[in-house]
Amino acid sequence: MNPTAIEFHDVSKTYSDSNEFAVDHVNLSISEGEFITILGSSGSGKTTLLKMVNRLNDPSHGIIKIFGEDIAGVDPVKLRRKIGYVIQQVGLFPHINIEQNIATVPRLLKWDKKKIEERVQELLALVGLDSENFKRRYPSQLSGGQQQRIGLARALATDPNIMLLDEPFGALDAITRLNLQDELLKIHGGMKKTFLFVTHDINEAFKMGTRVMIMNQGKVCQFDTPREIVTHPADDFVYSLIQSSKEQGRFWGNLT
């Protein structure tokens, strides 16, 4: 059995301008090596929950542990350097080339030049881009899909144990999105890393996740395998979500 990578102990988040919970008393654990998708509509709490793992948000109540350590006592900057983070907007630095973008954190950590060059070449190959053709290019010279690959490579640069991905494919066209989903699953399959992937797309969530966390109004409605959720929805919200999406077809027949 794999060790526990992330634990949420009665975790809640409220903001000073609202009495409502953005995240409402979450209790769950995630094992090392799992690919967890977090599914919900806008305002469901999914991104807030994700950002508490790398302390871009801190909980108002409760404890989050990573490999048994309470992250409240960990310096946020040091914590983030050990956790990969990929967002929809990619966030590449436009004034430096691809090699320099990927090497951002290794340089901050004072890696030697040769080690950085080897790691950049390795990561470009991992995300399906030829090093010689791409490392000297600038972000503006890349397509949206290529930029997202570079964002993934940069997040993997220091070989983090945990990867956080916040709707990374949300702005891409359907074909590119499907291709990158397949490639990300392949990359995850070759690693012993824990992935948390936020999406509002139920098809994406059920395709990608070994387990799916469904959120609504700050609460986790159900956290289970895709098959178990489809065959045994936990409440009326989950049931209606499944029913409204089945007509989209694709893989649904394999889950029932």
Walk me through the structure:
- With 256 residues, the protein is α/β, with parallel strands linked by helices.
- It has a domain at 89-159.
- 36% of the residues lie in helices and 25% in strands.
- The chain contains eleven helices and ten strands.
- The chain has helices at residues 46-53, 76-80, 98-102, 104-108, 113-126, 131-134, 144-155, 174-189, 202-208, 226-231, 236-246; strands at 4-14, 21-31, 35-39, 61-66, 69-70, 83-87, 162-166, 194-199, 211-216, 219-224.
- The strands form two sheets. The chain has a six-stranded mixed β-sheet with strand order 6-7-8-3-9-10, sandwiched between helices. It has a four-stranded antiparallel β-sheet with strand order 2-1-4-5, covered by helices on one side.
- The longest helix is centred in the C-terminal third of the chain and has 16 residues, at 174-189.
- The radius of gyration is 19 Å and the shape is globular.
- What is the structural class? alpha/beta
| Biggest sheet features | 6 strands, mixed
Over the alpha carbons, how many angstroms does the gyration radius reach?
A: 19 Å
Uncertain segments: none
End-to-end distance, in Å? Answer: 27 Å
**What's the helix count?**
11
> How does the overall form come out from the CA principal axes?
globular
| Percentage of residues in strands | 15-25%
The average pLDDT is 92
How many runs of DSSP E, i.e. beta strands? Answer: 10
Enumerate the strands of the largest sheet in spatial order, edge to edge or round the barrel: 6-7-8-3-9-10
Note the run of SSEs as H and E.
Answer: EEEHEEHEHHHHHEHEHEEHH
**Helix-residue proportion:** 25-40%
